[in-house]
Model the fold of this input.
Amino acid sequence: MKYDIIVIGGSAAGLVAALTSRKLYKDKKILVVKKLEKELVPCGIPYIFHTLGKIENDYMGIEDKFKANGIDLLIDEVVDGNVNEKKIVTKNGKEFEYDKLVIATGSTPFVIPIPGNDLENVYSIPKNYKYLEEVQEKVKRVQNIVIIGGGFIGVEVADEIKKSGKNVTLIEAKDYLLPASFDADFGEIAKQEIESDNVKVLLSTKVTKIEGNGKVEKVILENGEELPADVVIIATGYKPNTELAKKLGIKVTELGYIETDDYMRTSVKDVFAAGDCVQHKDYFTGKPSRLMLASAAVFDARIAASNLYKLRLLRANKGSLNAYSTVIGGKTFASAGITESVAKEEGFDVVVGRAEVVDRHPGKFADASKITMKLIFSKECGLLLGAQIVGGKSVGEIINIISLAIQKDVNIKDLLTMQIGTHPLLTAAPTVYPLAVAAEDALSKM
Done:
């Protein structure tokens, strides 16, 4: 059977690639091939352990969206193909021809190679609802949970499981939490917040072995300490799912990601790629990035779909900003751009501006929260390089404003003179608006 457009993968990138293609090419015949019958909202996965309750509450519901938009859907796995003949082959033996192909195969958990990681009740966090149903049910029936990895998945899962009254220990090899997105000062705030919910946090700590008779019983640390464990969850990051791309002869990078140009074209004509399986580069350093965020995935997908039949949308920015937010305990943490520590490692001469203000005025409103903000600027020219914020829910949108500001080369003086709209129930006071206060603090140090 022949299709104009075939999308391989049905999570965030695959969904947007297919729906954007439909909007732009109304007369094209489109097929999505994906392995799982149901797709989960990737960022919602940690919350199945308490807040969402049921896994089905995290379903994306994309199947109905495809049907409503006249997009064919096949639950199967593409295992082979021939890009010269423009043909793909599925696990169940079905063959399809295409005019344009979009690979959105995502990522899979990276499980650290330690003895015992294959024992029963040792799990990772894939985007697989059947697997996660097993993890969820097992966690409900036990008491001692050890989570290896203090990045955002590990922290969020620990925070959620603890809400069910379990004994949770979180282990991170580096000396502070969330090291990929925050500096040590904000990592310490995250530690204090999650410890206030009685999660035990072990930093600068490595696991050397997981032990048990058939199923996990304990975790052995580098210092010889033993931790009782009924369930171990390994949350040490993800790796790109590019085995199919390699099999098709599509070029991948040294880090194992699919290489694309600024139009999301791969090394093979009429084959595009988007999402976690694609190599990104850091906005400021230009170095290969291991960025894997749904927001970046859908950005890729829109560009790929837009350029299938003619080049109309260039990836105009210089790279990926790693804009990110999460909730730990009762606080929102967010970051964008480069951290202070990485900036210094790369040779930037930086100045840091700080602000601590309340996000309502007066601060006696019931939903008022203290915002702690850190802005990193180039000392030489005042260019905004990055930001880290902790506070209430308003932080989630403030970081998006900052992300755009970085992309548009905003500097200290721009933030000091920006025109804003404020309201007592919605924002900080105009007299202490956090972006202006932090910029002013930085300017005073130049």
Observations:
- Residues 12-24 form the longest helix (13 residues).
